[in-house]
């Protein structure tokens, strides 16, 4: 019997254990009101002076269209990180809405993260006060526990390139936490791997792969990714 077991093991060895791969899905927000009024690459300063602008009707359509495309890639990611600006929060909630009737996939864990905010010293890139954000969005599934009560200044002492480096390191830390089954990150509990995305990502080892969605801004993501990779960022339909 022992000889048979050794022969069987030789002829039919157990499948190798594959380490979980990490997929980071980068998404830019839909069209917002500060995106209007620009022409021939000329900035309309008045548009950029709109405080924390919301999505336009077109931006809402873009976000809803992205919802179906995201569902094809990963129905329920392990975590969604979003910039705390209104346009990114609204984009996130249109892609991953609160669901109570079971008609869609469950909403993933969504965390607002200050370091994903847009670069550029314009009023449109300054987030609202923490209490305003909590009152407006926490009941819709956004966790604001990582945000500082103090709104980041319009001119940050940390350069965008440095901030993007910090974000890359934090994403790797989060992936490690998820791979280990969950844990604390910046004072909040990050859940372990989601079983709801099994079989939903083409070409992935779906039972183990980790999916993190990052919803941020065009200029900041140019720093977040090397230049040759930036075109691979998923821009919502209709965006330039």
UniProtKB/TrEMBL annotation:
GO cellular component, one term: cytoplasm
GO molecular function: phosphatase activity
A Pfam family hit: His_Phos_1
SMART domains: PGAM
Annotated positions binding substrate: 28-35, 87
PANTHER family assigned to the protein according to its UniProt record, in alphabetical order: BROAD-SPECIFICITY PHOSPHATASE YOR283W-RELATED, PHOSPHATASE SPAC5H10.03-RELATED
Protein name: Phosphoglycerate mutase family protein
Organism: Monilinia fructicola
């Amino acid at each position: 019997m022992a000889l048979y077991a050794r022969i069987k093991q030789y002829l039919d060895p157990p499948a190798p254990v594959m380490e979980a791969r990490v997929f980071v899905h980068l998404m830019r927000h839909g069209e917002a009101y500060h995106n209007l009024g620009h022409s021939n690459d000329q900035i309309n300063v008045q548009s950029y002076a709109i405080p924390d602008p919301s999505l336009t009707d077109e931006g809402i359509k873009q976000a809803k269209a992205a919802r179906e495309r995201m569902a094809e890639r990963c129905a329920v990611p392990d975590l969604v990180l979003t910039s705390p600006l209104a346009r990114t929060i609204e984009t996130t909630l249109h892609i991953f809405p609160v669901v109570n009737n079971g008609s869609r996939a469950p909403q993933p864990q969504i965390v607002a993260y200050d370091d994903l905010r847009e670069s550029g010293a314009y009023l449109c890139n300054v987030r609202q006060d923490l209490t305003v954000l909590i009152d407006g969005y926490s009941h819709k599934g956004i966790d604001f526990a990582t945000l500082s009560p103090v709104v980041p200044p319009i001119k940050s002492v940390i350069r965008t390139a440095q901030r993007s480096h910090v974000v890359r390191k934090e994403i790797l830390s989060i992936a490690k936490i998820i791979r280990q089954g969950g844990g604390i990150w910046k004072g909040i509990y990050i859940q372990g791997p989601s079983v709801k995305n099994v079989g939903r990502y083409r070409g992935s080892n779906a039972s183990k792969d980790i999916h993190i969605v990052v919803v941020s801004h065009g200029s900041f993501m140019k720093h977040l990714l090397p230049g040759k990779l930036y075109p691979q960022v998923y821009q919502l339909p209709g965006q330039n």
